């Protein structure tokens, strides 16, 4: 029986045979909710290799052939619900290619098939993929490990009237029209891990922003999206000034339908993003800065396994805030930093300060890495990097990061290897600096070390003064809130007492229109307060919010809050029964456990 290889979340045995390229040729059948066709795999092999092991989950394998069309001996071994089943292909001495004929299942976890009524346009269906962390194996038979990089090409046939886009270079921008369908072709010349192979199909339009940047979205959304992301080219230039040239050609953003489970996904060349960032005032675009940062930290230098996730996310949070500091100034970045620290402290309190899940170097063997995503790799990872910066100085640290991205471009990085690089390059025998940083405590210890720098924020100090005035009895309408940004409002709402009497909640709502806020971050914080205090005036808005978008960041805390009371449990299960068909599997896997759905 094949067991996981060097990566505990992949059956691949890359020391024996490693996939280097995959050529996809697929038809999108919206009626059957299937992708069907072939994946032609090229691979490198050791001299004595006898088998190529691929990751699959719920794929229907129809045949495995060589390029000449001759059958290759193969078998699907037993696996488990998380990792799926290994596809083992018997190798011939003179062959280094295999063509897998297959179909996806209608319930493939990486694929979300949307009906027209679930889209902004309401006319045509939509499909998008979400491969991170280990879901690409549900639509592509390949070696689904972040430590194995591969180039790819794709030929995708879609029903006439729909447009296909991928996180790759478009080789046929207008498509090739045939009777009843259109063919689109793509190429990714830079090697990427499988989780970054991404596809979307829908009624889509494009708006250019800069010479290398633009926005894809459905027609009713695309102009607002282009306006919201008008700073995209400036972001890219700021990132390049910090850590070197952008190596992926274009940087475009695809605004997906509301069911997308994440804020954003850093698919190279084409970030997939939630429409909940479209606030109308460009106040939530730091999320795009984060996904752009992944073009260096994650896509260029990639965590070797999901145990090393902080190397992707901690670096990108740190980089995101450096980008926003360049564009909006230090005071703006300090607010982001403070909000992030609040989220981290709350997460550590929830997990427990001694929990192994509060370490940066985590052990996820035997667990679904999606289920273990917390704020720890993001915010503790970024705080660790800020601590290093504070000890060695920004100029020295920036030079190190630029060397790091240049030296290890298009490679994977394990935590142990990164610490070796850090000590040999940046610290270079500086034992005093290493003692001041306390590397082992940060990386291998639980909880939060006490030497992390805390960003000062005059803006938040003023917000906290208004919180105190409100608590002391000042009417909500009398508070000084003119000109507050989203971040100040979020800090204000988080700073309120846990429990408030109904008249005070009504006061806040009348003064500031919180229940009907069009800003997703503000509405989310207010709805948590409403559930906690059973402020039923906000419940129609709560139901619209839970049924109208599928972003896990918002869903999870709200359902958890509802499940704390008898009345809330009844409401949660009723709403979830309606909303669940519109959520992606990444979200339903989390919410099922919260509401007790079997």
Provide a descriptive summary of the structure in words.
With 598 residues, this protein is α+β, with helices and mostly antiparallel strands. The protein has 4 domains: 17-197, Immunoglobulin-like, CATH 2.60.40; 204-295, Zincin-like, CATH 3.30.2010; 301-456, Neutral Protease Domain 2 (Neutral Protease, domain 2), CATH 1.10.390; 458-595, Alpha Horseshoe (Serine Threonine Protein Phosphatase 5, Tetratricopeptide repeat). It contains 18 helices and 22 strands. It has helices spanning 219-228, 232-243, 286-293, 310-328, 330-351, 376-392, 394-407, 415-427, 431-437, 439-444, 458-471, 486-495, 502-512, 520-532, 539-548, 552-562, 566-579, 585-595; strands spanning 17-29, 34-45, 51-56, 60-65, 74-76, 85-90, 97-103, 111-114, 126-129, 149-159, 163-166, 169-170, 176-178, 181-193, 199-202, 205-208, 213-217, 251-255, 264-265, 270-273, 301-303, 411-413. Strands 1, 2, 4, 7, 10, 12, 13 and 14 form an 8-stranded mixed β-sheet that branches. The longest helix is centred in the middle third of the chain and has 22 residues, at 330-351. The two termini are 30 Å apart.
